[in-house]
Amino acid sequence: MNAENVAASERLVDAAYVRQGWQGRRAHELRLRTLLEQGKCPEEGWDESTIELLLHELAIMDSNNFLGNCGVGEREGRVASQLVARRHYRLIHGIGRSGDISAVQPKAAGSSLLNKLTNSLVLDIIRLAGVRTASSCFVVPMATGMSLTLCFLTLRHKRPQAKYILWPRIDQKSCFKSMITAGFEPVVIENTLEGDELRTDLKAVETQIQDLGADNILCVHSTTSCFAPRVPDRLEELAEICAKHDIPHVVNNAYGVQSSKCMHLIQQGARRGRIDAFVQSLDKNFMVPVGGAVIAGFSDSFVQEISKMYPGRASASPSLDVLITLLSLGTKGYQQLLKERKEMFYYLSSELKKLAEAYNERLMETPHNPISLAMSLRKLDEQSGTAVTQLGSMLFTRQVSGARVVPLSSLQTLSGYTFKGFMSHTNSYHCAYLNAASAIGMSQQDADVFLKRLDKCLKTLAKGKNDDKNTPIANEEIVSETEKCSTKAAEGNAKY
Ligand SMILES: *Cc1c(COP(=O)(O)O)cnc(C)c1O
Fold first, then answer.
1. To test the ligand 1 pocket, which listed residue (175, 179, 198, 231) has its Cβ within 8 A of the most ligand atoms?
2. Residue/partner pairs of 46-53 with CB below 8 Å, 24 or more apart
3. Hey, is 317 helix, strand or coil?
4. Class of the 333-492 domain?
5. What CA–CA distances, in Å, run from 204 to 76, 192, 237, 387, 429?
6. Ligand 1 geometric centre to CA of 280 (Å)
7. pLDDT tens-place string over residues 346-361
8. Is the pTM of this model over 0.90?
9. Which of 154, 224, 143 is nearest to 182 (CA)?
10. Distance (Å, rounded) from C-alpha 85 to C-alpha 423?
């Protein structure tokens, strides 16, 4: 509503009321203006009506929504289904231009604004979460693995001779495949065991650099967030080694934005040595659907080079989802989620420790891992060769998702590379174990229900039984457990 429209309205409705209404509207518009001027995530989350106002304003700036538009090209933002149009708030043109995912699209001023705003807000959050000197970032509509591939392909042009990537082992298929897909040869650096923890073998990294020659190495590909008992890589030391030998360094920070420790490691690495880019998943850190990642770095020109490697235009959906999410949460809401996650981590670790000890097992001591926990399954494994995998399937049947059972010595071949002890990040860990994580958005009810079901499964297995095959577990039983724990969680929450 502009001044002319307000004047016209005053002929229909009492001027005093119209002005009042206009004032009300201006408060929403003021938020939009602050957002456009500053490009920062608002401190307080917005209500849905302001967010929708922004999205409608952006959408009508795109040519597919012009009243007088006549498209005669092959990509004119036409959609057959109105349901699809609404699902995307009529932002149909996507982001980027054929040669650069960050470039402005002339047919779509609104979508281009959306893209710039989102990248700016996400950078604000990355800095707030601990990487204070990050200089730029962009959202890509590809998950983490493919986004890492894009980084490696960008480096290829700078180091045409290089064919190896030094990779401290982490048993997660997509980060391994990100190197293979980019056409490089991963050089697996086995981890060293320190107490229960698996940590980066810095000496082995140095040795490989001597043996292969720095110019033949594309980069070091390190990892922050990972399943215990592996812990985040020694980023500071790796970054120093990379700086010393002039080798690029790409960090897989898949779900690290939610942990101040992971973010601190990246900040320190960049301060003390060299980090060229760090990549994080959108869904794992920002509670949006799977499909996007953020590529960030400390040099504007390098980050821009990566965005220029992306061929063609791209989906705006991941950017739209994360923009809506950050505007709804505000920095306060996001920081609250981070705080609750950390509290839930301590809760889960102390409860899991008690449960483990009740079964003569123990919680592995992995103080450097801020998200994932591991509980030994030594006794269970000694009891029978199949008990550990049985536990995995029992948990699955009981609708426990995300818990991961790791038996000893499982052999796996990935793209021609054979990994001994696959899943455990090392050729032979000293016992079988179970992983559970406290990730952003986890509720106390999730933790309580998990602990209760794990307890039941362990009890059943301790009696030498596996009731899975005979008695399919009733849905009612699962639902009633969930309800009981939700009352308990409500009581527990009152304590915080
Ligand atoms: C999730 C994850 C990835 C990437 O998975 P995508 O499906 O490609 O997003 C890579 N490494 C680790 C450690 C992860 O947790």
1. 175
2. 46/327, 46/328, 46/330, 48/328, 50/327, 51/324, 51/327, 51/328, 52/89, 53/28, 53/29
3. helix
4. alpha beta
5. 54, 10, 13, 36, 19
6. 8
7. 999 999 999 999 999 9
8. yes
9. 154
10. 42
Residue 378 half-sphere exposure toward CB, CA atoms < 13 A: 13
Ligand 1 pocket, 439 CB below 6 A?
A: no
Domain boundary assignment for the chain: 333-492
Location of structure tokens 């995307």: 88
Instruction: List, for residues 390-443, the tens digit of each pLDDT value.
Output: 999 999 999 999 999 999 978 899 999 999 999 999 999 999 999 999 999 999
Which tokens hold the place of 97? 């231009």
Q: At what angle do helices 235-245 and 260-272 cross, to 10 degrees?
A: 20
Q: How far apart are CA 22 and CA 455, in angstroms?
A: 59
The helix/strand/coil state of 102 is coil
Residue nearest to atom 12 of ligand 1 (CA): 254
Query: Could you give the dihedral angle defined by the CA atoms of residues 279, 114, 288 and 444, in that order, rounded to the nearest 10 degrees?
Result: 100
Tallying the residues shown for the chain, one arrives at 496
Rounded to the nearest angstrom, the gap between the alpha carbon of residue 217 and the centroid of all alpha carbons in its chain is 27
